Amino acid sequence: MSSEAEKKLEQMLAQLRQERDELRVRAHLLKAEFKDEWDAVERKWSHIESRLGRVGKEARDSAGDVGAATSQLGEEIAKAYRRMRDALR
């Protein structure tokens, strides 16, 4: 994966981490209906962190595939965080 692609993934991860931290602080306000969604997003979060850790270790020729899948997963997580944040307003 190119350093530009790695940089974009790292920026995405930093944004997701910030959003996650803000939501975690407000977690006590989450309604019961969000508990299942939150748990599902947390599983995805663990998966994305694991994948990003492996991207640097995997062969560069296959890292592009891992990066694309990780980006897609990151987008799913971001959408879920936005839904929850909007519902808390």
Chart the SSEs and their pairings.
Blueprint (H helix, E strand, L loop, with lengths): L2 H23 L6 H24 L4 H29 L1
Helix pairs in contact: 1-3, 2-3
What characteristic shape results from the CA principal axes?
elongated
Low-confidence stretches: none
Q: What average pLDDT do the residues reach?
A: 79
Helix content: over 70%
Short description:
The chain is mostly helical. It is built from three helices and no strands.
Provide an overview of this structure.
There is one protein chain. The chain is mostly helical and 89 residues long. It has one domain (3-88). It has three helices and no strands. Helix 1 (3-25) runs parallel beside helix 3. The chain is elongated, with a radius of gyration of 14 Å. The termini are far apart.
Keywords for this entry:
89 residues, mainly alpha, 3 helices, elongated
